[in-house]
Structure formats: structure tokens, C-alpha cells
Amino acid sequence: MNEQTPADLNRTQALTEIERQVYEWQLWVAGFGEEGQRRLKGASVFISRCGGVGGAVALELAAAGVGKIILAHAGNLKPSDLNRQILMTHDWLGRPRVECAAQRLRALNPRLEVMAMGENVSEANVAGLVGQADVVADCAPLFEERLLMNREVVRQGKPMVECAVYELEA
What we know:
The protein is α/β, with parallel strands linked by helices and 170 residues long. Helix content is 42%, strand content 13%. α5 packs parallel to α6 (97-108). The longest helix has 14 residues, at 143-156.
């Protein structure tokens, strides 16, 4: 039998009063309602890269009330990242961008569990990263990473949303 962690248990519980207030508009949506919001609260999403596209995906999922986001993105924040990576701020220049993204997401939604990995998808970590999530959002600009994730989601039978951009190509 799989034991649930405290975070897992929190995501499967009924909505709190503050969650009902925050997600009020979503609760009104026909066919979604409180049950849909509870399912979203119980969901986990792995987002490969938290740059321009991945940051926007993570921000919207955090705002919508997803319960857990797993981010993987190597490298430190550079000035050229600031005009397109909406989770990044000037005070994080030279520091790990994935940590900046995690901090911003937690500030937006303090009920959100964020796991921040300071590495890009690789042969060594892809199975573990995909294995922790219900859904994968492929926001990596490089085909090597995207193909690794595609292979792994097929192997694990998980859905993947592709939404990558490279230069001006989507």
C-alpha cells in the first residue's frame, strides 16, 4: 500500500473557505464546480523549464489552484531573460532561475507545493521527474529534452502537453 505524504493528504481534502473564495469564479463553471477544483488541487504537473513559456504555464497553473508543480531548469538568471520570463525579477540576477520561479509561485499561491530542480531534463533524471507528476508540460526549447520526455511519458502512460518555443518558432 502506498502511504500518502502530508502534502498528498492536503491536496485530497475538501476545499478550505479561503480556497472557495479564491476560486469562486471557477466553482461557478458548469461541469467543473467544487469537484473539479478539488481534482485540480490534487493534481501534480511537471514543467520542463520555467523560462518564457514554462513560466507562463506555471503561473497560470498556480493561479488556477493546481496542488503541486515540479520545475526543472538549470542555470542562473541573466539580464537577457528578464524581458521574456515573467517569473523572474532583477534582484535574482546571477542566482538560480528555478528558485526565483518557485518563490514567485509560492507568493502567488501559498497553498501550492513547488519542487524546484536546478537541472534540465536528462537521461539520468527524466524517469523520476515524469514519475512524480500526473501531467507533463513540455516547455523545453531543445529537442533532445523534448524527445526524452516524450519517450518517458509514453513509457509511463502519462499525458504530455507540448508548448515549447525556440527563438521565434513555436
